[in-house]
Each structure stands twice: as structure tokens, then as C-alpha cells.
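Let's see one such:

===
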Amino acid sequence: KHTVNLDNRTADVRVKPFTLEMGITFELHVSISGKKINVSEVPELSLPEDWMRDKLELNFYKSEEGGGEVESVNYDKQSRRAVITFLRPG
């Protein structure tokens, strides 16, 4: 518990712990065909291109969300598009 002086007034404040979210949440627009997914409107983030490729691969690798083993990720930062290719169709 702390007392803070604000414009000739005092206020009692109390500190409470909280959890910071460490991830970045963003929305993707996706069109799907047998073995490839075309992703458009990838958000512009201040990440190196290889980090964004890794982030996309991890996201689409999650089998519990319908993903699978990723063969390759082709990402173009300028057009904000990516093509994710899976090892097996599904």
C-alpha cells in the first residue's frame, strides 16, 4: 500500500501482481488448397523475415488446430504474403 501526492491531494494506492502476455496476436487471411496455404495481409511487425517465417511455421505446425508438418514457408515481407507448404495434403 502506498500514498501518492497528486496536485495537492493524496491518494492511497495498492499494488497488485499481474501477468504480461509475451506473445503477439494478429489476424491472418488464408485460402487453402490440398498441400499449400496462401496467407495474405500478414501484419507488418518489426521482426526480421526469418523470424516471421519461423512464427508462421510454428503457427501452422499445430496439429490440434488443423495444421501439420510444414515442408516450407515462403514469406514476402513487402507484399505481406506467405505460402505455407505441408509435407502431406490434409
